[in-house]
Specification:
Elements (H helix, E strand, L loop, with lengths): L4 E7 L2 E9 L24 E2 L4 E2 L7 E6 L2 E5 L1 H10 L4 E8 L9 E9 L4 H14 L2 E8 L2 E10 L2 E7 L22 H14 L11 H14 L15 H15 L9 H11 L1
Parallel strand pairs: 1-7
Antiparallel strand pairs: 1-2, 2-8, 3-4, 5-6, 7-9, 8-11, 9-10, 10-11
Length: 276
């Protein structure tokens, strides 16, 4: 499993060297956009609409919009300086909580934690302590220059870290439009709905669920693979073959020896008489 981050977990005076691994992966079936006419993949270029020129990476700076159409430009050196302040790679557990107290809307991404060199015993200690206490660690971590809240808990036999949103990153439910107020429903309607819920209730077994759309899409791709594949047309390279051939021919013509012009008829006749 690929390591994406190395650092340590700290709580109190305990420090555990760890590695971070992505716990989930996207299984989307991606498609390229092709030119309908020749089936060539389309390129997306960075172009300035005002200067009408294609931009290289060194031509691009980061701008933060502070008002409509007004930006503050931050240089790369300034960003690097900010990163240095938080460059210590540490999962700092600041509190211990019950996971049930966190609404699922806060959860973001999941990462497996494995012990790094010298961290096996401390890793096992934290795992055992979390299991027996029924608690999880609430931590702070900096990933890709962004400080995030995270929950460290036990998943099967592994420590799992789940990043969670800050409260100001979760939108208010009260701002959702067209949500109806409490309406009058009869007891009979409620009892019927609860009965239906009970009939459809089952223990959660994730293995029995699969992405039906992705499955059908892959089957469709496979069925068309042998007969209906398309190949982009070869790009026509700009050449000067025509001009080159013309230039070669002109050179040949220029170097040809001049043909001798035939003598006038009268002179030929005079020459013949002299010989006679």
């Amino acid at each position: 499993m690929h390591t994406i981050w190395k650092g340590s977990i700290s709580f109190g005076l305990v420090n555990i060297p760890i590695k971070l691994h992505a716990a989930t992966e996207e299984k989307d079936v991606s498609a390229r956009s092709l030119h309908k006419k020749c089936h060539t993949p389309i390129k997306y270029e960075k172009v300035c609409p005002v200067c009408e020129v294609e931009l290289k990476q060194e031509d691009i700076v980061k701008g933060y919009e502070v008002a409509k159409g007004k930006y503050v430009v931050i240089e790369e050196e300034e960003l690097e300086q900010l990163k240095k302040i938080s460059e210590e790679k540490m999962v700092e557990i600041v509190d211990f909580i019950k996971v049930e107290e966190i609404d699922p809307i806060y959860f973001n991404r999941s990462y497996f934690l494995s012990p790094n060199e010298g961290g096996t015993k401390a890793y096992s200690l934290l795992r055992k302590a979390l299991t027996e206490s029924g608690k999880a660690g609430l931590a702070k971590i900096v990933i890709r220059s962004k400080e995030q809240l995270a929950v460290v808990r036990v998943y099967e036999n592994t420590l799992l870290m789940e990043t969670i949103h800050y409260p100001d990153e979760v939108r208010k439910a009260a701002d959702v439009p067209n949500v109806p107020e409490e309406s009058q429903v009869s007891k009979k309607e409620i009892d019927t709905a609860i009965l239906l819920i009970d009939q459809l209730s089952t223990p959660f077994e994730p293995d029995q669920y699969e992405d039906e759309y992705r499955k059908r899409l892959l089957e469709l791709i496979q069925s068309k693979r042998t007969e209906e594949t398309v190949t982009p047309k070869a790009k026509k390279e700009k050449t000067n073959v025509t001009d080159l051939m013309a230039a070669l021919q002109a050179s040949i013509d220029r170097t040809k020896p001049a043909e001798a012009k035939p003598a006038p008829r009268k002179k030929r006749a005079a020459t013949r008489k002299k010989k006679a």
